[in-house]
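Problem: given the chain below (498 residues), write out its structure.
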Amino acid sequence: MKTQDGAESQSGAESQDGVTAREQAGEDVSGGRRRRRIRIATGVSAGVLAGGLVVGGVLTLQPSGRPAAPPPAAGAAAARAAVTKGIPAAPPELAALIGERESHLRRHPRDAAAWAVLGTAYVEQGRRAADPGNYPKAERALHTSLRVRARGNAAALDGLAALANARRDFRAARKWGEAALKADSERWTTYPLLIEAYTGLGDLKAAQRTLDRLRELRSGPAVKARAATLYWDLGWREDAAAQLSDAAAAAGSAAERAAWLERAGQMAWERGEREAALRHFQEALRTDPDQRVAQAGQGKALAALGRTSEALTAYRAALAKRPAPEHALELGELYESLGLDQAARIHYDLLRERVRAAAAGGADEELVLGVFEADHGDARAAVRRLRAEWRRQPSVAVADALGWALHRAGEHKEARKFAVRVTDRQKGIGVRSALYAYHRGMIERALGHEGAARRHLQEALRLNPWFSPLHAPRARTALRELGEPPVEPLPRGVRAPE
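Solution.
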């Protein structure tokens, strides 16, 4: 039976959102009915809803032009369990889930819950592949879910918060996350999204309060991993490492465990533990071969260990599957440190291309572009970009990048204000980062504050002697040029010990 808008009427066995219990369990409810073959190209509409709303959908086509075989139900069920809880899912399982939900929505286009799951799966697929082309599809699916059922649709609001975080639009993520809590204050999956949004806006106090509430509602690996990230931002390094170790040990899937191992590798790297970082990255990649962020981390650690050829191979393999602009910048700087300027320029061009692709998908990559411009392009253009970014979302990372860009543009006094804000716990946040300490040291050197410059450059190299293939050698050169601190004369009447 058809309704006036062309949708199939719901049977009494279906839930309020149009999903039967068997469909929720991932079972095929078509029985012996033969599925219609639907020839549909990428970008063609997946369904027409009340009011004539057309929503873009995608089916994977085989070379023959026929739709690919239906993905395994088990993979779809695993990915659905993951994305609805904000847990990393494996790419093959995500593809299975997306195909299954698209097929279901062609038969039940008024299923708000299915639209929310589909949109959230698109977000995760885009994030894992660094493919912002998924984000407009996610946005259409999630808004369709809200159009079908606006009241109490916390799942769709969660999805929109996740999408905004993936796009680095933290104000929008805060808005959608807070709306989701109004719809359902006990929905624990909203709280990690809000913690990420508050952190992106530089509001670590709000992030702490939100974490406290999350831990009242829920425990488990995903909560521990989110706590670890915030603890690290707050300077609680040992607590952060312990939380991530527990999260990885208790993870429920290979993709989840690999994600927490990758984060553990990043934290080991920040501590200057290059061998431990490499072990974490390698284990993450063995656990989930699609963990390309870990593969890029592997390249970084291998370069620090002097295994340059292996490092280049790892970076290139990661970028081939996940062309993230920040990793293109890292590889470009590695090539530049080796004197291979043409190869470096190729990857700097890739960075610019990926930033343009991100903008087309509604994502904000101004931070990485500003960092690149400050060191390799137009420093004044970097200042303009990063000032605008600071007004939008004044995070720790943006403060550091803006301070460095101001320094590179010759505005050392203003640059120091941002550097102090980032690195001084008494006057700001006090993040322990080799790169941030290096930036502050070089700014102070330009101002003639030799004692402070020496102290912060030493701190950078103490935290991580290999923090950058370009900047770590420059920090050592600057320290040599500064020389040893002058010997201060003893006060009158005080004799030196013999």
